[in-house]
Amino acid sequence: MLKKSIYLSLTFFFIAFVSKFSSAQNDWQNNPAIEKKIDSLISLMTLKEKTELLHASSSFTSGGVKRLGIPELVMSDGPHGVRMEHGRDWEIDSTTSDSATYLPVGITLASTWNKNLGYQSGKVLGSEAADRGKDIILGPGVNIIRTPLNGRNFEYLSEDPYLAGEMAVGYIKGVESNGIGACVKHYAANNQETLRGKINVIVDERTLHEIYLPAFKHAVQDGSVLTIMTAYNKINGEYCSNNKYLFDVLHNEWGFKGTAISDWGAVHSTEPTLKHGVDIEMGTELANGTKDNPDYNGFYLAEPLIKFVKKHPRYEKYVDEKVRRILRVMFAVHKFDKKRPEGSRNTPEHHKTALKIAEEGIVLLKNDYGLPVGKKADMPENAVVKTIAVIGDNATRKHAGEGGSSQVKAEYEITPLEGIKQVFGDDYKIVYAPGYKPNKENKLDSVLMKKALNVAKHADLVIYIGGWLHNIEGEMWGKYRYDAEGHDKESYEFPFGQTELMNRLSDLKPMITVILGGSFAKTDKWLEKSGAVLFAGYPGMEGGKAIAEILAGKINPSGKLPFTIAKELKYYPAHSIGEYPGNGQNVIYRDSIWVGYRYFDKHPEKILFPFGYGLSYTTFSIDNLKLKKKVFPSGEPVKFSIDVTNTGKLEGKEVVQVYISDPVSRVVRPVKELKAFEKVNLKPGETKTVSFILDKNAFSYWDPESKKWKLEPGDFIINVGNSSQNIMQKAKITIK
Ligand code: GLC
Q: Atom 4 (ligand 1): residue with closest C-alpha?
């Protein structure tokens, strides 16, 4: 007994010593002291103990080894707020005070095109996760928006991998600045929720590398993300959680040193997962036995793994490698040295960040009305707005707690109606009518419509707040879902008779339309008739205030679309040249690299609002593109600058977007591809010079023959503008 206790205390002393030393070196990926410690811990562990780390020990924890002082890893959703507390066997533990900051969702964050806000969002999330005792926060979601029907688009960032990657890297750095691990998800090509658990995505390598993998690569190589979550679906015949191609790329090409976590219940094998799959199998234990594995009674990486390794001892090295990755993450999140910053929750600063993101993430799509609302100098008396009719269920609906695993118990959520009353104050008479009511029959409510039309008739201006919602009450995992996990939208038309309501309202009075949701929708006469249209995504707990501030002119809108809004659903390449949702087994990505503006640049007539588009209350010019030279040796960074001027009367922000064209190349390439952007704030009349440096990646394509990135010498065009369809400066360069 004595011998054992000396032995154990030596071990703990050793952990303490090395952790102290290792905490000084926060480069978790190449830290000899940590690696040494891990070697020693692995040498002390039995095979059974090692497998404890490789699978869940409860709803949101993975196992530890008490005997050696290795604690469990504690995880939590979600991408835009720390989810309410789940008990160890899933029930919602409502006894805890687990309200949190409900940040704007991914699509609204990406609409800011503000990398620093990506960081700020992550910083808040990581701090609140630390406060709640979590080690890993399960976000960001970076899957590419391939169809507007995908139920989880609201959680994601863009149709473009560069924008998604840039926003994700800031977010990851923000999360991990708190000593918490981020978890970039869902790796990879999880672009629909329909049959997500079994659908097999058939996609070519070049499309994977140019469209569906770059945001993950950026997260690993530039964001140093600690963990990655594999998706439910298959890619080219193999489940993501044990997909040899994905793990070769992740480990051998990108050099990922962290931990791969499966989505919950997404592991389907023992040996393939051991050899080229996730490190941690998460999700509830499946019932006894499965058709292909009758003695299965728990986790693929538990009993079946022990049996397999006992029969093939040489495979224990794969177990050790997984344990190493997990322990590396444990050191990085201070599980041993306990040196993680405290964290905080629901602070005024956190809520201010939520407001800031919402203010910059709302996109002004149309403004013939002449927003902001308010008396203008030359306005005739009868045009002065005195009574405002706020119409729409989304004016009063709260969204935080719905949508699936990304749900948040918000400390509060200011609805648009509350925001409008708060910001517009007593200067106006505000009257409200819902106009429609979400219902399972997806029916128009003629009584509500009549009432709303009557309220509008007696007002000077209608502010319509509608669009999508996550799900009907009580249907978060049921049939009646719209912007939600596990389910795609079944129609591209706004539900509950909104189109007719919007058409009639906009016929009756000047109308401002505010759309909430993870996507836009099929439009109708109301678009033409609306004096102004805004897209807000789901703007979080302060979103109602941000909407009101923009309508009242307290904030000048600066959001830009992170996805294309096409005139018709059938125009989207996933629906026109690709397949969606597939035949129940496979979905073939025949649209290949032609996703979003990469496709619509060749079909501009199909665009309603382009990628990168968003209006301001002021105007900007972008000119004076300056290059140090025009000919560059291959591999030398291309440096240039551009001047942005605020040519209007109000302070505002503009997003300078840089797209690269490769007019002559061996493979077919998109007209242009986003390779840099910067958001600048300018006072009226102010000019700023923005400098860019493009490395060789900005000009390369993924070559299907050599199976690697290739920079083909020749001429390239640098396109600079403030939307993918508004290029204001061009310059040709040659790379030798
Ligand atoms: C869900 C989601 C994933 C989430 C996990 C834990 O199925 O796909 O995004 O983090 O399970 O709730």
A: 405
